[in-house]
Structure formats: structure tokens, C-alpha cells
Write a structure and sequence with these properties.
- By secondary structure, the protein is an alpha/beta fold.
- The chain has 2 domains: about 160 residues, Rossmann fold (3-Layer(aba) Sandwich), CATH 3.40.50; about 70 residues, no CATH class.
- It contains 9 helices and 10 strands.
- The strands form 2 sheets. Strands 6-7-8-3-9-10 form a 6-stranded mixed sheet, with helices on both faces. The chain has a 4-stranded antiparallel sheet with strand order 2-1-4-5.
- The radius of gyration is 18 Å and the shape is globular.
Amino acid sequence: MIRLTNLTKNYGTFTAVNNLNLEIKKGDVFAFLGPNGAGKTTTIKMMCGLTSITAGDAIMDGISIKKDPVAYKKQFALIPDKPYMFDKLRGIEFVEFTASLYNVEKDRFKKLLDKYSGIFGVDEYINDFIESYSHGMSQKLLITAALIRSPKVFILDEPMVGLDPKSMKTLRQVFKDLGKQGMTVFMSTHSLDTAEEVCKTAGIIDHGTLLQSGKISEIKKKNKSRKLEDLFFKLTEPGAK
């Protein structure tokens, strides 16, 4: 479903992401892990067409972002690390606007709006102006709007930031359910507990270089680590490589 081939991003003489190769299958819930400044957000921006690719390519369901960027971008929804919405709109207006961009049918829109606004508690404030929302409220509205589109791929950069414990628990279960339904989830997170609970596959990046990737159970076994947290620190602490 997702294939990143020799993906590279240079800023002048600085290499933010170096020759990254990843393959993520349909229905995988994938955790993209690494310390601050490791290259996670830069990778996601290249995957989503938000920054140029110095070298390599990103492919979703056989479509290259370089060869057909419009068709490529129709396949995914993105929740960025710093969500931006139109503050002067009400929540429901933003969701309706998003759905209209992707031609979501009215019956399907209502069904999925009722489902996800109820799951995340968005229905409690969806008629309020977005400028009154907290970060967590904005995050949950964005996730609701994205899921109403039913994208093939759901990309999230630090989705748990700003969420209360109940919402975090709810979102973890939603990720599991989406994977079972065949949606591919690509999630950058600092929450190793969330990654271990929700994800079957993971990649660990540091200083722009992918250190390990694959099934979490297999990479833990390969590195003789009982927990993902142990593996993460073993690979990323200074002097580990």
C-alpha cells in the first residue's frame, strides 16, 4: 500500500532524511518512531507533498507522488502535528466543507458523522466556533472530518498530543478497528506504549536514517528486547550505533 524508495531530503548540506526505504501493507497500523529531530515529520511532509523530495519516491497503491500527485493525494488523509483550521467556522461547517471537497454522499456523511462525532465526543461542541476549541478538541474534530472521507491511508503526526486519557484510549481502539477494516494507518508518535499496544509493525529512525523496521515482535526478538521501549533506547541512545 505504501512504499517509500530511497526517500531523501537535503536542506543545503544538511541531510534530514537519508535514503529511507519502507514498505507498509494494506491494513497495517504502523508506528514511526524516533527522537525529536530524527526526521519523522520531514518524512511525513515528503509523503504528503508538503515539502519537495530531494531524491527517491513515495508510492501509494501503485501511484507515485512524482508521476501523478493529484491521484496520489486523493488516497490519504493527514492529521499534522500542528493542526490548522478556519477559526471563524463552526465545527460542523468545517466538517461539511471537508466532505464536500471529496464528494462524500449525504447519506454516508450523516452515518459517519454520527458515528465518529459520538465516539470522540465531538457532538458536544460541533456547533461552536473553532476559535473556542482547545488543541484536543481541534484534534478530535480533524480526525472526525478525516474519517468521514474513508481514506485508504490515514497519516497522523503525534495524534495523542493534547488528548485527555479517555480520548487517547478511544483513539487507540479506533486505530485497531480501522486496521481490521483494511485502512492503512501511518502514525508518528512518541508514545511507545501506544505503539506497542496498537501497532503490529514499526520503523525506528534517528538522525535521518532508518535503523530498524518490520513486525514489532520480530524486531524485538532480533534485538533481544522484551519491550518496544527497551528496543527504542537501545537503538537511539548516544553510542548505540
